[in-house]
Write a structure and sequence with these properties.
Length: 117
């Protein structure tokens, strides 16, 4: 599977994953950048309905690898299947990072505002 190589600035946007309804109402945010250790659910594709933890995040190509989402390779080994962030929803956040906690407490600009322009 080939992916695009991401610029450093685009990485944050393109590796953002929607939060579940419970987390969205609790934190007042729609999406957050995915991290290793987050609990996610697959909502699209062949593995729809599978829940697991993030094992690896490929920031260069924009893929996320989730525990339990694997297939058998040609030589019989189980390999993780790369997923796009758009096919996932975060169910459980890993909050052991003080920077991530700070990011969650920051106020987010309301939708439709032109503060960034």
């Amino acid at each position: 599977m080939r992916g695009i190589v991401l610029e450093r600035i685009e990485t944050k946007k393109l590796l953002s994953v929607h939060l579940s309804d419970e987390l969205r109402s609790k934190h007042g945010r729609r999406s957050l950048r995915i991290r290793k250790g987050d609990g996610v659910a697959v909502i699209k594709g062949d593995f729809e309905g599978v829940e697991g933890t993030v094992m690896r995040v490929d920031t260069r190509k924009g893929f996320i690898f989730v525990e339990g989402v694997s297939r058998e390779s040609a030589d019989g080994k189980q390999v993780l299947v790369p997923l796009r962030p758009s096919s996932l929803v975060i169910k459980k956040l890993k909050l052991d990072d003080k920077f991530r906690q700070k990011r969650l407490t920051m106020k987010q600009a309301p939708e439709g505002s032109e503060s960034g322009k």
